[in-house]
Amino acid sequence: MKSPWTYVDLEERRRRLGMSKVALAQRSGVSYPTVRRILGGDLNRATYAHIAAIARSLQLDLEITSRSDAEQARYEQARQKAAALVGLVQGNSALESQAVKQHVLEQLIAKTVQELLASNQKLWAE
């Protein structure tokens, strides 16, 4: 599911309102350099609070929506983690010239997914 807004939407809204970035910074309480970075697409260091303040100043609402139901999210997490874990094993096996076939890897991933889904602690641990 696509995010309901992007930084481009914020910049376009600012322009349509005829509001300068300086005025937006003043109205939102967010520093001018931060406003400039966010409107320019640098969201790596942007905080939710800053984005929310900018959106409010542009008379926009932020909406948090679910990309999937909880079970699907758990499965996706388990699948990603299982693939990474099995990939480590496969990499070590390949170094020892004992690599396994693709269908065996898929079976290992499926088994690991089930084990991860049975344990919330393992599923969400880094």
Describe the structure.
With 126 residues, the protein is an all-alpha fold. It folds into two domains: 7-57, 434 Repressor (Amino-terminal Domain) (Orthogonal Bundle), CATH 1.10.260; 70-124, no CATH class. It is built from seven helices and no strands. The chain has helices spanning 7-17, 21-28, 32-39, 48-57, 70-95, 102-117, 120-124. Helix 2 (21-28) crosses helix 3 (32-39) and helix 5 (70-95) crosses helix 6 (102-117). The relative contact order is 0.10.
Radius of gyration: 22 Å
Helix share, percent = 55-70%
Uncertain segments? none
**N-to-C CA distance:** 25 Å
User: Would you count the extended β strands for me?
Assistant: 0
